[in-house]
């Protein structure tokens, strides 16, 4: 079938990649359970061992992957068991198939993901404001990574204190959630830090921020779960990216690139985000 040349191409690309990927930065902190593959020093041969390298940083430290890896143990909202098995291999080469073809099933708000206005407004959902309608210009461009004070949720007071200049359109808020490594814990933790309603309202009314990123499953603190989402999404101008992986990156200005899947009719989507210096 037509699969064969494609498969060959993919395999070749993989082999090429393996011989050139042993650049994982040792300076970058190890993420539990996802330790970078050990690479033998350059010139040591050894690229005939088929061991892929997994990385958080690319391009000599210029590109940071700020999406979480999908694993069975990653947390799911309100669950103690993580997302569980989400990937199968219904067609496998070991069982005589021409190629391996896996299949996945996950809620659209799993792992690093984006919320569309239809998430909390039923009339927006019905009108079709799904993830396919999100503005890629908002999701891609200059972004500020800021550290939020660790002793409270994001209130109007905190927003004032952060003093984010007018004109800044994309902000990734790093919180206590990152220090507590909540995204690496299987059990959902409702004590995560997020926006209180007044913080969301203040941001919408007093800043130019249109992309709000945060480091746990919801931008809204658990106590203000729906009210904060309503404040953010009512005008259909702000895009919310949740469960970003912001570990070990200096605060400051970056280029962010976030791309949701074009899931027609879906109010959420997994999203791959990177930061570039
Ligand atoms: C195909 O799937 C099998 C498991 O059935 C796995 O061991 C093998 O590595 C896969 N092959 C490729 C080319 O991915
Ligand atoms: C291959 O098929 C057998 C029998 O249907 C099944 O038990 C086994 O799990 C399959 N193995 C893989 C790798 O898909
Ligand atoms: C943030 O709010 C949650 C409830 O939504 C609470 O459990 C948590 O302690 C608060 N965090 C801080 C740092 O105040």
From TrEMBL:
Gene3D superfamilies, per database record: Putative cyclase
PANTHER family membership: CYCLASE-LIKE PROTEIN 2 (PTHR31118)
Signal peptide per UniProt: 1-17
Record's keyword terms, sorted: Extracellular matrix, Secreted, Signal
Entry's Gene Ontology molecular function annotations: arylformamidase activity
UniProt organism field: Rhamnella rubrinervis
One of the Pfam families matching this protein, by short name: Cyclase
Subcellular location: Secreted, Extracellular space, Extracellular matrix
SUPFAM superfamilies recorded: Putative cyclase
One example of a Gene Ontology biological process annotation: L-tryptophan catabolic process to kynurenine
Superkingdom classification of source: Eukaryota
Protein name: Cyclase
Family: Belongs to the Cyclase 1 superfamily.
Primary location recorded for the protein, binned into one broad class: secreted
């Amino acid at each position: 079938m037509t699969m064969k040349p494609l498969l060959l191409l993919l395999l070749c690309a993989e082999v090429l990649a393996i011989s050139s990927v042993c650049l994982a930065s040792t300076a970058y902190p190890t993420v539990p359970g996802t330790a970078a593959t050990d690479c033998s020093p350059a010139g040591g041969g050894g690229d005939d061992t088929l061991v892929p390298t997994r990385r958080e940083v690319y391009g000599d430290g210029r590109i940071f992957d700020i999406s979480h890896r999908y694993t069975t143990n990653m947390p799911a909202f309100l669950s103690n068991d993580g997302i569980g098995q989400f990937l199968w291999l219904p067609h496998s080469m070991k069982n005589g198939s021409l190629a391996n073809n896996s299949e996945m099933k996950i809620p659209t708000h799993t792992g690093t993901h984006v919320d569309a206005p239809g998430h909390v407004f039923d009339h927006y959902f019905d009108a079709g404001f799904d993830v396919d309608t999100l503005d890629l210009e908002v999701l891609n461009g200059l972004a500020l990574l800021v550290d939020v004070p660790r002793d409270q949720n994001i209130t109007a007071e905190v927003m004032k204190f952060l003093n984010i200049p007018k004109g800044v359109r994309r902000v990734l808020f790093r919180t206590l959630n990152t220090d507590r490594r909540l995204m690496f814990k299987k059990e959902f933790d409702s004590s995560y830090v997020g926006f209180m309603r007044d913080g969301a309202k203040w941001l919408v009314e007093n800043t130019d921020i249109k992309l709000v990123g945060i480091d746990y499953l919801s931008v809204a603190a658990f106590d203000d779960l729906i009210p904060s989402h309503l404040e953010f999404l009512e005008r259909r101008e702000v895009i919310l990216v949740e469960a970003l992986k912001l570990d070990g990156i200096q605060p400051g200005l970056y280029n962010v690139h976030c791309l949701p899947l074009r899931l027609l009719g879906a109010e959420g989507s997994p999203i791959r985000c990177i930061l570039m210096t």
